[in-house]
Amino acid sequence: MGLSENEQRLLDEMERNLYKHEADIVSTSAGPRTVNYTKVAVGVLGVVVGLVLVIVGVSAKLLLIGVAGFAVAVVGALWALSASRPATGDEVAAKRAAGQGPAAPKQAPSLMDRLAQEWDDRNQR
Fold this sequence. Notes:
By secondary structure, this protein is mostly helical. The chain contains 5 helices and 2 strands. The chain has a two-stranded antiparallel ribbon with strand order 1-2.
């Protein structure tokens, strides 16, 4: 059963949007990253200190200490989560030279290529 003209137009529009946004998604989510482990350690320490302050504030029935502890824990968590950043070209080259990184980036098929392949495989059965 064929698609109506309206359905075909909507399908074409969806496909164009997928092609347009696929490059944005891949460029923001892929690629090597580096982690600053000092920031992670300081962030985790901040979370632990914050939670201790919350417990002390609750046990002493001092609202100000509990709120301050919660704030310290949130700031510590945000600090630890901000420790990852995209690797620079020099860092990637150094890792490849040391044998830690991939020798060559793998070119994965696009979403539309994978969907087309699945469609062809399904229709051949």
